[in-house]
Amino acid sequence: MNQANHSRFPAWSPRALLRNRAFLTVAIVILVWVVAGFAKPGFGSYGHLRYLLELAAVIGLVAIGQTYVVIAGGIDLSVGAIVTVSAVGVPLVALSGDGSGTFAVLIILVAATSIGFLNGLGVAYLRIHPMIMTLAMATFLQGVLILIAGGTAISAQNPLLAWLGNARIIGIPAGVLLWAVVSGAALAVLHATPFGARLYALGANPLASALSGINVQATTMAVYAVSGLAAGLAGVLILGMNGQGYVGIGDPYLLASIAAVVLGGTSILGGSGSYAGTIPGAILLVTITALITVVNASAGWRSILFGSLILLLLLLSGRESQRR
Amino acid sequence: MTPQAIIKANGLSKSFFGNPVLQNVSIALEPGRIHALLGENGAGKSTLINLLSGALAPDGGEIEIDGRSHRRLTPSEARRAGIAVVQQELSLTSDLSIAENIGLGAYPRRFGLIDYKALARKAREVCDLVGLEENLSTPVGDLPLGRRQMVEIAKALFRKPRILVLDEPTSSLSAHEAQTLTRLLQRLRAEGTAILYISHRLNEVMRLCEHVTVLKDGKVTADRSLQGVDAAGLVRLMVGRDPGDLFPHWTPSPERQTIVEVTGFSSGLLRDIDLEIKRGEILGLGGLVGQGQEDLLLGLYGALPASARRAVFNNVAGLPSSVSRANALGLAYVPADRKREGLHLIHSIAWNMMLPDFGKARGLSRRDPAAERKLATELADRLSIKGDLTRQVQALSGGNQQKVALAKWMPADPPILLLNDPTRGVDVETKREIYVLLRRFAAQGKAIVLSSSDTPELVHLCDRVAVMREGGIAALLEREKISEEAIVAAAMGAEAAKVAA
Known about the structure:
The complex is a heterodimer.
Chain A: H1 2-8, H2 14-18, H3 21-39, H4 46-71, H5 79-92, H6 102-124, H7 130-149, E1 154-155, H8 159-166, E2 168-169, E3 172-173, H9 174-192, H10 194-204, H11 206-211, H12 216-242, E4 244-245, H13 252-263, H14 275-294, H15 299-323
Antiparallel strand pairs in A: 1-4, 2-3
Chain B: E1 7-16, E2 19-29, E3 33-39, H1 45-52, E4 60-65, E5 68-70, H2 75-80, E6 83-86, H3 98-103, E7 109-110, E8 113-114, H4 116-130, H5 145-158, E9 163-167, H6 175-190, E10 194-198, H7 202-208, E11 211-216, E12 219-225, H8 231-239, E13 258-267, E14 270-278, E15 282-286, H9 293-300, E16 306-307, E17 310-313, E18 316-317, H10 323-328, E19 331-334, H11 338-342, H12 349-360, H13 369-382, H14 398-407, E20 416-420, H15 428-443, E21 447-451, H16 455-461, E22 464-469, E23 472-478, H17 484-500
Parallel strand pairs in B: 3-10, 3-11, 6-9, 9-10, 15-21, 15-22, 19-20, 20-21
Antiparallel strand pairs in B: 1-2, 1-4, 4-5, 7-8, 11-12, 13-14, 13-16, 13-17, 17-18, 22-23
Helix pairs in contact in B: 4-5, 8-17, 12-13
């Protein structure tokens, strides 16, 4: 029996590791860090790497939801706006009796989840294309934010967030720890629960999934709600790190989240990939940004360089997946 | 002295993914003759047309046009040779006008631009031929199906073909339109056009055609003049085959208790049908393609909106409102198009087998990888799916893919199986395995509904056969009455009566 099992499910082999996109992305990150550490003094210092991880944590949190949505065959273009809603919203809902600020954070997380849920509702029941639905949602939120917050930055007086943004536990920033814990949960849900399996089913073949008894509508709504929650959580963290929120604070995270997902080897067409690749994807992204900042060039050139590097990396990894 | 054939196919063969669809098929089309091409669903008629029009390249054989032979024909060569095809699936662009559709790809030009005046004039001519009186600037999407079919025919005529191929042109036409078409074809024949005419309406064929080629499982079983042949003779020509020992021995199952009962059931094409499905039987659904068989299965499965005056499933009243509800009532569905509807091609064999359970289990419960592996191995052993179960399903042959599509329902042990053409594109060996499996299920007291485009399958496997026609049940044949002749006659005979009326 055991023998038969073995032939049906081949044992793990080192060769499989070389075809594992998550592992390859980790290898690239380490390679870049080692090379940059030697080339530029100070890059490899613990302080700098810790700083990079803090930046990556925000992208990584947003990209949890994006990874889920992309695996399920959709895309969420409203994550940037939801990050902003959360970063601007927490100071606005501050209540007098809420000394620790926990309550404000919870309200905002519920709100962010609801926004995602609305996205899911539009995609699942109104059959609006995810790109249109989430883009319209982003535009709508932008308008609401401008009406409420205007052009000013709003400072947060929230002890919980201040702790989240600045505390270190045995030398590790609280934000990075938050990212690590949430990542663990995200990976477990994706790979060890039926819900996670449904996401892969939906992204690979929605029709066959429906005919196999999977509730496509409910799963779609749930996955966009998760995306809203993850973006909301990232917004809370960024507010804690920044001390204040303003309209537009979340904008860079839209492209960053998609880039991290794709750099990590998740197919933009849905159905395959893992958050395990998105984590090094997010780290790679901030590392490249940091390296470009070192280059003595104007902001315009840096942006061009950044875009070109992303394309180059994607081309390389795309060729890799074709070779399989 | 017979006239020289314009186009001749000699010994054409074609396989799809290793399944031979045409084997050594020869046909010759002569000017001024209407040549009928007959055969059951899946006999290879459409493939033959696609070879003649250059849409597909043959694996073997040659096509001879005006005495010049070609290994293969490109679509443009076929067009230049004067071959025009009226497809069964309409190939019109619904947003373009009638005139634009007719001229598409062959627009008259003036100074490099489309000459709309000339287009309108020429389109008018062919429309008059087919009796289209509509304004030529009407978008085709606004026309009823029958009129669209006439536009399709006009489009073929616009190219002034020497060889006109019509694939079931009358299936969507009214009696009046069919008459217009008949007159048109007679006129084209007089003008010396070679016509290849495919139809399931036998009396039409008897009236119109002079010569017939019959295809059966990709082989020519008759190529003769229609003189002295009657309709019954044609049916014999189409179904005459030795079933061999492909099918397991049929033995009745002891259990015959009704498990599904619907009255006044409507869904999609279906209007107001009554049906009873019993434990221990295989109920066949026969008839021509697209007469509502799929709508019946999907409607019962809760995947298509349906209504019924009365419905009882497994002692529970009411129709299942969703697929998960249907699964809970003990129904399982295996789709005909397994690549698009049945399987997740990029995922592994084992993963595909677990899918219905993923849908059913609590979303955030823990999966048990060891149990999953054990179950997948058992299922693979039971259905003799060989090899590594972590391979992607798309790496498997059609037959093995079908086994995976069946296997995934077995853990739930559903008492009611709805199967939509489960042996389509499946090799003979796997077909046999599936047949044995289905009879075994029936013996275990399961109810099986088997929709099939393969008539022998219905004859040798089923306890009862419902022959469907135009969204209704044209005949319900009991075991002793089931024969290929009876099924084909029920699928077509009633149609003959309607056209005559």
